[in-house]
Amino acid sequence: MEGRVAARLEARLQKDVDHPLALALSGGGDSMALLRIAAAWARASGRRLLAITVDHRLNPDSRDWSRRCEAAARASGADWIERRWEGAKPSTGLPAAARRARHGLIAEAAREAGAKVVLFAHTADDIAEGDWMRARGSTLGRLREWSPSPAWPEGRGLMLLRPMLGEGREALRAILRQAGEDWIEDPGNAVFGRGRARAALTPFPEGEGLRLAGRSDAQAERVRGPVRPGEGLAPQPFAQDRRQAVVRSIPLPLGEGFVVDRSTPSAALAAALLCASGNETPPRGDRLEALAGRLASGEDFIATLAGARVEALGETVIVGREAGEMRRRPAAEIALHPGVSVVWDGRYEITGREPGWIATAALGRLNVLSKADRAIVNAVPAWARAALPVLIRDGGGAPVLAWRKAEVRTLGPRRLSLARWASSGETTQESDLAGTIHGETPPPDLF
């Protein structure tokens, strides 16, 4: 098994490069096994490995767990860094909030270190547990070998690699036992949805996979199918949607949205919605399928979903930021500083050129723009204008389109390209990421 996982790392990752390879290390059995395998590969490949541990501050033993993670990482030859989830914790929705915080903190640490890939230790068992939860109404996404970081905008340009999706949890723990290594068992795992899924799933004989406890029906067989360890990676969840790699999506001039095809598959449509809206929470599956069905039917309509507006007229479908959402929850005003990049509204990366400017929405300010700026704005669909970024002086004065006084990059097109790359399954090497993530978006020729 160690050889199989190491072979996947060998096939996917670059050697002898300056930027580190990051690894999410919780101290659980899965991540400790991955640390063992990845550290050996990194030593042989001339690659620096950075283990990142998040202390959620949810258990009184969490400080000790972090110390154990640090000791294990240092002993393996990896660098180690800790991030802490500070502040008040929600009384409801704690698992989702903790997951969001974990991904955000890991992404921030990885990006600060210059990493482009973070290893996660999900296994075949995690796939089965996710299937079990989705069968009961969960909107949890299905795991893929490669996927963009779900934290947005903290994880922009960052990919997650899961090299152990074809391996079983118990087999990984057996490797640790044989090596005399231990791991942390978080009692909180048994409380929430995934813990209930884990309890409901029992191993097949001799670690063949997982079975729904007390069940032998079609659902149990469906769960069993993709999780046999040792048979290679589990099927990619969007295998039926490989067309999305070539689906047309044309960004609009100022990054205010995309033109997409009516035949856009659901997975690609979900990505377009998120990239146009700047959000990170995917739409519910039933609503997404209903929208995709309306598009495929040829119906002309206007709809909203996941913070995005969809306008279908004839063969033209435009997806952009929903103006009503901007009014209900306006984007934050952000002060700019020379040479410092900030993400505004999840859609634009703005780098200040001079002090004293604040990035905000054009909402309520369109009529006081200069004549030249209004001419540019008038070329944008009317429904998208209020969501464009403008700059205002902290001491007052007329607003200007952000492109006039700052460097502006639209994040949507690059984010969508990365999502497509990950789910197409056609390229799977770290070296392929360079052009996809870091290709520059040229400034619009309107300025």
TrEMBL record:
GO biological process: tRNA modification
Keywords attached to this entry: ATP-binding, Cytoplasm, Ligase, Nucleotide-binding, tRNA processing
tRNA(Ile)-lysidine/2-thiocytidine synthase N-terminal domain segment(s): 22-190
Region described as Disordered: 216-236, 421-447
Entry EC no(s): 6.3.4.19
Principal location: cytoplasm
Compartments it resides in: Cytoplasm
Residues that hold ATP according to the record: S26, G27, G28, G29, D30, S31
Membership in a protein family: Belongs to the tRNA(Ile)-lysidine synthase family.
PANTHER family: TRNA(ILE)-LYSIDINE SYNTHASE-RELATED (PTHR43033)
HAMAP family registered for this protein in UniProt: tRNA_Ile_lys_synt
NCBIfam families from the UniProt entry: lysidine_TilS_N (TIGR02432)
Function: Ligates lysine onto the cytidine present at position 34 of the AUA codon-specific tRNA(Ile) that contains the anticodon CAU, in an ATP-dependent manner. Cytidine is converted to lysidine, thus changing the amino acid specificity of the tRNA from methionine to isoleucine.
Protein name: tRNA(Ile)-lysidine synthase
Chain's gene name: tilS
